[in-house]
Design a protein that fits this description.
The complex is a heterodimer of chains A (302) and B (345).
Chain A (H helix, E strand, L loop, with lengths): L1 H31 L6 H18 L2 H4 L3 H27 L7 H23 L4 E2 L10 E4 L2 E4 H23 L1 H11 L1 H6 L4 H27 L1 E2 L3 H16 L4 H21 L5 H15 L14
Antiparallel strand pairs in A: 1-4, 2-3
Helix pairs in contact in A: 1-6, 1-7, 1-9, 1-10, 1-11, 2-4, 2-5, 2-9, 2-10, 4-9, 6-7, 6-9, 7-9, 10-11, 10-12, 11-12
Chain B lengths: L1 H8 L3 H17 L6 H26 L8 H18 L6 H20 L4 H20 L19 E2 L2 E2 L3 H24 L1 H11 L1 H6 L4 H27 L9 H14 L4 H17 L4 H18 L10 E4 H5 L14 E4 L3
Antiparallel strand pairs in B: 1-2, 3-4
Helix pairs in contact in B: 1-2, 3-7, 3-10, 3-11, 3-12, 4-5, 4-10, 5-10, 8-10, 11-12
The chains are: A mainly alpha (302), B mainly alpha (345).
């Protein structure tokens, strides 16, 4: 039982990360019907920007403690948002009116570009987050179960950001505009919404969340890799579909669910098959409920 | 390249065929003066061309988003490897066997998922490659050799000649590619090919015209997998070793990009794109680190400059009077223009 709860908490922690990345996929898909294959690499970029700011530039030492990390998180968000904006501007916007597959290939190209750019700058070896204090050392005993500080950070960060996004999308005028563009671009344009601006905004919010997820992974797992974006990205995308692609609460639910299923599967079925379990879940979902858990029915073209 | 089209469509048909003939003749003699390095590059291009052309049937002609084509390539390669190393069956005899097994795998996979909308199919096929690679890496049934793969596959023997030199493989692979090109060109114009094109253009209309879209999609998927399985056998025979590293999702994505970059549905386009992309990759393999960076940027640039692909398929031409011979009175004199372009197909 104790091990079960431990695994559950691990699952929730990694699930929160998946959910944060999944939000970027699902928002972009919601407004553009495009699978942003480069999103996973923006996540990686967040982890590496965090590494540079926190350790190489020493912001972690200048402003010790949580405050320094929060400042770095803000900077990472801003930097990755700029990258997301540039990506949309350069690789996707010119293709918005052509065949959708052209945008998919452009996205794949951008992904290869980012991955290798990171590799060239930081090297192909895994990088270590060399903090003076490691989150892994601390833990909080609750009813006989040690909840590690890193789990708390991961769960806390993801819940906070998800709540923020949910509030932003549902309670602000800009959020309403995003929903309108996702619903019907032409109609939104007629209502006086600057569609280009909204799409650019979506390409900044999604990567910003993904970037923080990258930083969190770096902080909590301590090790980052230039091509980790693929695995995390694919899992997060699976999560987005699991919850119903284009649906923001769906991405949150899907991410957390996938994290838990994966973590329990790893513990109770087989560690070697960990990744296969997630993809198997994905196929099952698509077979029996292609619109995902919270997705709405999509009408076929007639 | 547009000039090439004009060559073919207007006066200079002869020049066009001379060009094609020239390319074929050049390929036929090039082992005489190319060293092994370039032959290796050409063999890579040849293998990828076979694969890309088979994917082209699914992705380019039918419009099914398959980003997991290497899964069937892998099934073919592993089938050949397992049967050859365990039962000592000559590797070329295994061509149809591994093709069939890949086709069966495709059938099993496609059965439930073929009706999914475009993007979902894309994701399922990606998941498929991942699952397959994990399965093979976990040494399933003790047959697949885990992450090390399988070693010691026999060299192929053709007409009593043991094929092991690079130039011998060149003729084997490019011969197979030649057959593929001819067969697929015929297929494209056949009733089957036209039905696939119709599904790509407008699935609802195709269904309405009495084309069973689901079964045609299945056939396209299965046939492409069959061909990829055979290509897998060639690969296994050439490398004498197989491991999952050659069949990753990245390879699948590369094939996907080749088909779209070449111009989905266009055999010439896919061949050209394979030549350019795989050729570039092999040619600049010395500049290892920068190569892929440039490669990624080039993929984006090419799409921005030509979103329809390098050589998009031309509109098909059909002889109209063949279908009008039953009419009591010709709508126009048969000596006038007798072909009509069907736009967009």
């Amino acid at each position: 039982m104790e091990e079960f709860i431990q695994q559950l908490i691990n699952g929730l922690a990694v699930g929160g990360i998946y959910a944060l990345i999944a939000l970027g996929y699902t928002m972009v898909y919601g407004v553009l019907k495009l699978i942003n294959f480069a999103h996973g690499d923006l996540f990686t970029l967040g982890a590496y920007f965090g590494l540079t700011l926190l350790i190489t530039m020493g912001i972690g030492d200048m402003v010790p403690g949580p405050l320094g990390i929060i400042i770095v998180a803000g900077m990472v968000m801003a930097l990755v948002a700029i990258m997301g904006y540039l990506l949309e501007r350069v690789a996707y916007r010119p293709l918005r009116n052509s065949d959708r597959l052209a945008a998919v290939v452009s996205a794949l190209g951008a992904s290869i570009f980012f991955q290798n750019a990171i590799m060239l700058v930081y090297g192909s070896d895994a990088q270590v987050y060399n903090l003076n204090v490691s989150a892994a050392e601390y833990s909080l005993p609750v009813a006989g179960i040690n909840i590690s500080a890193s789990s708390i950070i991961m769960i806390g960060t993801s819940l906070l950001l998800m709540w923020g996004l949910y509030w932003f999308i549902n309670r602000t005028r800009t959020g309403m505009a995003i929903r309108a563009v996702a619903n019907d671009q032409a109609a939104a344009k007629l209502m006086g919404i600057d569609v280009n601006k909204i799409i650019a905004l979506v390409f900044m919010i999604g990567p910003a969340l993904g970037g923080v997820a990258g930083l969190t992974v770096g902080l909590c797992y301590g090790k980052i890799d230039y091509n980790m974006g693929w695995t995390y990205g694919l899992k997060a995308f699976t999560a987005a579909i699991l919850g119903g692609i284009g649906n923001i609460p769906g991405a949150m639910l899907g991410g957390i669910l996938l994290g838990v299923v994966e973590s329990l599967g790893e513990a109770y079925i087989s560690g070697a098959w960990k990744n296969a379990i997630s993809f198997f879940v994905l196929i099952l979902i698509l077979l029996f409920r292609p619109t995902g858990l919270l997705g709405e029915r999509v009408a076929d073209k007639l | 390249m547009i000039a090439l089209d004009q060559l073919k469509s207007t006066r200079n048909r002869k020049a066009y065929f001379a060009l094609i003939g020239g390319i074929i003749a050049l390929l036929a003699v090039c082992p005489l003066f190319l060293n092994n390095y370039w032959l290796l590059a050409l063999n890579n291009i040849g293998l990828y061309s076979i694969l890309a052309l088979s994917l082209n049937i699914v992705l380019g002609q039918t419009g099914l988003f398959n980003m997991g084509h290497t899964a069937f390539y892998a099934v073919g390669a592993y089938t050949a490897a397992i049967l050859n190393t365990n039962l000592d069956i000559p590797v070329l005899w295994l061509l149809p066997v591994s093709g069939l097994l890949a086709a069966v795998a495709a059938l099993l996979v496609a059965w439930p998922v073929i009706r999914l909308r475009g993007d979902y199919l894309l994701i399922v096929t990606i998941a498929l490659v991942e699952i397959l690679c994990i399965t093979l890496d976990n040494d399933i049934f003790g047959l697949t050799g885990g992450t090390n793969g399988i070693y010691g596959i026999d060299r192929p023997i053709l007409f009593g000649i043991k094929i092991y030199k690079e130039w011998q493989f060149f003729y084997l692979i490019w011969g197979f590619l030649g057959i593929t090109v001819i067969l697929f060109s015929l297929l494209e114009k056949s009733r089957f090919g036209r039905a696939l094109n119709y599904i790509k253009q407008d699935e609802t209309a195709a269904e309405g015209s009495g084309i069973s879209t689901a079964s045609y999609k299945m056939m396209a998927f299965t046939f492409a997998a069959f061909w990829a399985g055979m290509a897998g056998t060639l690969f296994a025979a050439k490398m004498t070793t197989v491991s999952t590293g050659s069949f990753t999702f990245a390879e699948s994505a590369m094939l996907f990009a080749i088909v779209i970059l070449g111009g989905a549905g266009s055999i010439r386009g896919v061949l050209l794109a394979t030549f350019v992309l795989i050729g570039l990759q092999t040619a600049f393999s010395d500049l290892k680190s920068f190569r892929l960076l440039v490669f990624g940027a080039a993929m984006v640039m090419m799409m921005l400059l030509r979103p329809q692909g390098i050589l998009p398929p031309k509109p098909h031409r059909y002889k109209v009077d063949r279908y009008m011979s039953d009419l009591p009175e010709p709508a126009f004199s048969p000596k006038e223009q007798t072909t009509r372009e069907v736009k967009g197909i």
